[in-house]
Amino acid sequence: MNDLKVLILDDESRITEKLKYHLEKRKFKVFTANTPNDGFTVLEKERPGVLILDVMLPGMNGLDILQKVKAEYPTLEIIMISGYGDMDMVIQAMRQGASDFIRKPFQIMDIQLAIERTEKFLMMQSKLEAAENRGVLVSKELEGMIEKDFVGESEQIKKVLKMALKAAEDGDVNVLVTGENGTGKEIISRIIHFGSPRKKQVFAPVNSSAIPESLLESEFFGHVKGAFTDARDEKKGYFELANKGTLFLDEIADMPYALQAKLLRAIEENRIKRVGSNKEIPVDVRIISATNKNIEELIGEKQFRIDLFHRINTIEINIPPLRERPEDLRPLLEHFVTSIAKKKGKKAPSISTALVNKLQKYHFPGNVRELRNMVERAMILSDNDSLLPEDFPFRGEDAGSSVASNNGNLNLDSNEVQLIEAALKETDFNQTRAASLLGISRDALKRKIKKFGIEITKGFVD
Ligand SMILES: Nc1ncnc2c1ncn2[C@@H]1O[C@H](COP(=O)(O)OP(=O)(O)OP(=O)(O)O)[C@@H](O)[C@H]1O
Ligand SMILES: [Mg+2]
């Protein structure tokens, strides 16, 4: 049993019960409350370590609850649940001490990862503070700590960490993190922020591909009242909300061309104008961007602006795919086996050399995320004292034959649909896991599901 107690406060019992069910399966000790008052009672009685709190509660605003709870239980870690339109609320919440947020619709995996991130990064922050009190910016101890979370012994990964720590030292330089799906781009971006002079300010992750195109400009720059039909009130955009902090532009290559010019201007001039207004508002944000695409190719195809590219990649950190750094496999395996065993309250199995040998030959399209999921799956299915190659599904081994047997159908789209459907079925329609099996991000999977109109018969929370 994981000793971490979690309280879920949401007015919808459908959501609290489902979350409870799934988090209990993952060995957390879970309490639920559907009204603020019930929530306060549980807090007092059980003293949970983490509170998962909806920003939009009828009656009492999630932010007011956050403030009250933080005042009484300053060490409680709070993860907010929000819709994408509540970004300003979320950022206010982060300013008031919430440690992370999850956007609806979410998968249970998102919550689990947020809890883990929360544990990890708060620990890192407290180390940082200790280091700062002693007058060192990035202490040896902190470096060790980061290395513990960002595992790897290869020269390539050491270089990535070294560059990340360098980028952290300077709070203003813009960083572009590149690498295939699941290589750790987000984790590195967070390390940069939490190691930087901006660490006490907001780290605001924005994935523009998850936002309807018509809303993008006002989401980034805000708008004034009456700027367009739905603009009933004035609203701040991400730039203003992330002021003094870090704006993390995930999947930057997917940003529409028209918005790229506006983004460039904001970054160059450190000023923005809200939609519908001529007033210039100064902003001070550091931009960390991430992409799994080759931006130079996109520039050639006129899909990405070269001037923006030059602005965002003052420092470029490329995380090589896992298959190119076989030395990292064993340390990563050990890291995941130990952490998953701890979480499940099981004894950690040993790792057979045969397994390491086999994994070193595998091409890992989903990189570290895929490895992590494989280990988790193997540890659920096998109770042996040692993890063996048989416990691991190696996808793609017979992919050639399945395409060939596909009536000779070489149409890319229809094969893509089939693969996506197979991955969804295999994972019982868990989109996070399906994406990982396919070696793409969950957002990319969502776009493909939408593009091909694939039917999701069994989703989780929505
Ligand atoms: N070197 C590493 N050490 C430990 N965990 C890692 C490492 N690299 C990645 N991970 C883990 O792998 C998972 C994927 O990492 P992350 O989300 O940062 O990848 P990403 O590059 O942003 O992926 P995507 O392109 O799909 O968005 C996370 O659970 C992360 O903690
Ligand atoms: Mg990512």
CATH superfamily of the largest domain: P-loop containing nucleotide triphosphate hydrolases
CATH topology of the largest domain: Rossmann fold
> What general outline do the C-alpha atoms trace?
globular
**What is the structural class?**
alpha/beta
Computed over alpha carbons, the radius of gyration is 22 Å
Task: Give the overall pLDDT as a whole number.
Answer: 83
Q: Which distinct ligands sit in these coordinates?
A: adenosine-5'-triphosphate, magnesium ion
Name the helicity range.
40-55%
CATH class call of the largest domain: Alpha Beta
Topology:
Layout: E1 5-9, H1 13-25, E2 29-33, H2 36-46, E3 50-54, H3 62-72, E4 77-82, H4 87-95, E5 100-103, H5 108-133, H6 140-149, H7 155-169, E6 175-178, H8 185-194, E7 203-207, H9 216-221, H10 238-241, E8 246-250, H11 257-269, E9 271-273, E10 280-282, E11 286-291, H12 295-300, H13 306-312, E12 315-318, H14 329-344, E13 350-351, H15 353-361, H16 367-381, E14 386-387, H17 399-404, H18 412-426, H19 431-438, H20 442-452
Parallel strand pairs: 1-2, 1-3, 3-4, 4-5, 6-11, 6-12, 7-8, 8-11, 13-14
Antiparallel strand pairs: 9-10
The structure holds adenosine-5'-triphosphate and magnesium ion (MG).
